[in-house]
Every structure is written in structure tokens, then in C-alpha cells.
Design a protein that fits this description.
This protein is an all-alpha fold. The protein has a single domain, classed as lambda repressor-like DNA-binding domains (434 Repressor (Amino-terminal Domain), Orthogonal Bundle). The longest helix has 30 residues.
Length: 128
Amino acid sequence: MPRQIKNNVTQRLSIMNERLTIAKNIKLMREASNYTQENVASFLGIKRSTYSNYETGERELPLSCMEKLADLYGCDAYLMYEENPNVIESMLATAFRVDNLSSSDMEQIAAFKRVVKNSLMMDTMLSK
């Protein structure tokens, strides 16, 4: 197989694996937080079917949605790429579990978690 074709195949497989990792992680975080796909889709301002496609890996999760989800789940966006089950397990242990939240409630939770995450990051940077 010519090198260029092999590189293209390798790159596409890598992108597919990345998309599936993100899909698995966002589903785990959603379920650990006791949110429905409808809750999360409404929070993101998209249709439930679109969000469902992100969770199955059929569609690539846009960066803007990834950032909003990171705020909602109180983690850094890069952790959605994480494949280490220990890291994922520690993220899930801090999930905020509440039923019957509105989009507005979820926005407030995400804003609060963003403040906490940024505060912790500043503390870490200042302690160095």
C-alpha cells in the first residue's frame, strides 16, 4: 500500500477512535449525572437526535458543545478524550446528581462549576 494511502487510513482510524472515546465519555458523564439526552440537548440548544448522534459517535461533537459539556460536568474539555478508566471513574465520582432540571438550572450549574474549576486552576498555578 502506498505511504500516502496508508497515512490517510491511519489518520481516519485515529479520528474514528477519538470520536468513539468522546461519545463513550459524554454518555458516561450524562448517565452519572442522571440527565436525559433531552436535558443535555436542551442545555446545548440542539435537538435530542443530534445529541444522540454525538453519544453514538455517528457525528463529531463540535468544540463549542464540548466546552459547554465540560462546564456542565465540571471538568476540562480534554478529559473527554481520556481513555484511562481510572481518570474517568474519578470524574464520575464528583457528578452532580439532580432530577427534573430545566435548561436554566443546568446553565447555572455549569456556570458554578466553571467558577470552581477556574478557581482550582488558579490555586494550582499560584502554588507553583
